[in-house]
Design goal:
This protein has 451 residues and is mainly beta. The chain is 14% helix and 47% strand. The strands form eight sheets. Strands 2, 4, 5, 7, 8, 10 and 13 form a seven-stranded mixed sheet that branches. Strands 11, 12, 14, 15 and 16 form a five-stranded antiparallel sheet that branches.
Length: 451
């Protein structure tokens, strides 16, 4: 029994030992030293693994691998994680380091105007948020801005001479160089009021001087009077013995590195005082200019009728001039520098300004017609945005002509009396002669903004 008991004890001990876990083998100690963890791309880095004796295998993070304790590698722009695996007698272990190789990219339009600003677009690789990057022309910084969360940046820089190189720079990194074709600057001006009998001249100047050859052709009422050419600048005297319109065409035949530039400008030679009943070239020039600026006219015929007077009043309202319906020297000065009015809202719609007493027909955000109006005498024309829900052609019982109703009993309609000030019962009155035209331009559902 004694021998049997001893055998049983030995068996139990052996069985117990079978379930005791063996000690885990541990991999070799390993660490990484990098000669640089960040810098401008392409970034050359020496990676060194150290620790217990082992075999080293590298995953360099950019799709490439290497072996050995010391590795030299050049990183393109981006952020990479380099990882080393050390294999020893007891197993494997790993270490890693992050490498940031900073790159910049820059793009710009192909052509820029000399001395003017153009928009450049760039980004950082990898994307860096809220860092200041600089835009350089040669070695001169001309703009700076912060990047967005995707590392993108937009800057406006002034265009220099042909051949100038533009780069984006940050933290020692420099982008690709961009070179623009340069359009020379072109300054043109008439000197004098344009009034009949008074001195008038025209000047043209290229910037910089020597950017090309100036060619100037002068037309009067469509007839070529003469051609002039030169470099730098030209000054030409113009006769004002009779009314009419000067049209001057200026072109620059570009020198090397520049691209062509051109401009057509006009100046009316006018009799300053015109009114209903006036006729002749001054009236014709006036109507052509108003039509060009999209003021409503019945005809462009050289006769100063009520339609011309209404167009003049609409212009006077928008320009803050006395609302007389007649012209004077101040009116002509304003007309010579005017532009097509701007819409307040985008899209296709109608705008009515109670303050200025004008109606604007707007298509795709651009004003296509300007008409004088008279709104509610008590200020009761409602403010807001409405939509045309009813259209009534011809006259109704209240002598409203071709009406487009936009809310309740309020409509845009023609009327026999459209004074220069608010005088209606609340509707938007427009002159009878333009009522059918405006009616035809307004559809059911058209938005009407009243402000």
């Amino acid at each position: 029994m004694t021998i049997l008991r001893r055998v049983r004890r030995i068996a139990v001990v052996l069985l117990a030992l079978a379930f005791v876990p063996a000690a885990h083998a541990s991999g070799p100690a390993v660490s990484i030293q990098a000669s640089a963890t960040s810098g401008p791309a392409p970034l050359s880095v020496t990676l060194t693994a150290s620790g217990d004796p082992a075999l080293y295998h590298w995953d360099l993070g950019d799709g490439t691998t290497a072996d050995g304790p010391i590795v030299q590698h050049v990183y393109p722009a981006g952020r990479f994680v380099a990882q080393v695996t050390a294999t020893g007698a007891g197993g494997t272990s790993q270490a890693q380091v992050t490498i940031t190789s900073l790159g910049l990219t820059l793009g710009a339009p192909k052509v820029g105007s000399y001395g003017q600003r153009v928009r450049f677009h760039g980004r950082t690789v990898p994307a860096l948020k809220n860092v200041h990057v600089g835009l350089y022309r040669g070695e001169q910084r001309i703009a700076s801005a912060k990047t967005d969360k995707k590392g993108r940046v937009s800057l406006r820089g002034r265009v220099g001479a042909p051949g100038s190189q533009y780069t984006l720079r940050y933290a020692g990194a420099t982008s690709n160089a961009v070179v623009l074709a340069v359009r020379p600057g072109l300054d043109t001006a008439f000197h004098g009021s344009g009034q009949v009998g008074q001195a008038l001249s025209f000047t043209a100047r290229e910037r910089p001087a020597g950017a090309g050859t100036l060619n100037v052709s002068v037309y009067h009422d469509g007839h070529l009077l003469g051609a002039h050419s030169g470099q730098g600048s030209l000054r030409i005297k113009l006769r004002t013995r009779r009314p009419g319109t000067y049209r001057v065409r200026v072109t620059i035949a570009p020198a090397s590195g520049y691209v062509a530039n051109n401009r057509v400008v006009e100046q009316i030679v006018f009799v300053p005082s015109l009114r209903v009943g006036s006729r002749g070239p001054s009236v014709l020039a006036l109507e052509r200019r108003l039509h060009e600026l999209h003021y409503a006219l019945g005809a462009v015929d050289g006769y100063y009728g009520f339609d011309t007077s209404d167009a003049v009043v609409a212009f006077q309202k928008l320009r803050g001039l006395p609302r007389t319906g007649t012209t004077d020297a101040r009116f002509w000065r304003a007309l010579s520098v005017a532009h097509v009015p701007f819409a307040r809202y985008p899209g296709t719609h109608v705008e009515v300004s109670k303050e200025l007493q004008v109606l604007l027909m707007v298509r795709n955000g651009e004003v296509t017609l300007v008409v004088p109006v008279s709104t509610g005498a008590t200020g009761n024309t409602p403010l807001g945005v409405f939509h045309v829900y009813s259209k009534v052609p011809g006259y109704n019982a209240k002598e409203m002509y071709y009406s487009s109703f936009f809310i309740g009993g309020f409509a845009i309609h023609g009327y026999h009396d459209v004074p220069y000030y608010p005088a209606s019962h609340g509707c938007v009155r427009i002159p009878i002669w333009v009522a059918i035209r405006v009616y035809s331009l307004i559809d059911y559902g058209t938005a009407v903004y009243v402000y």
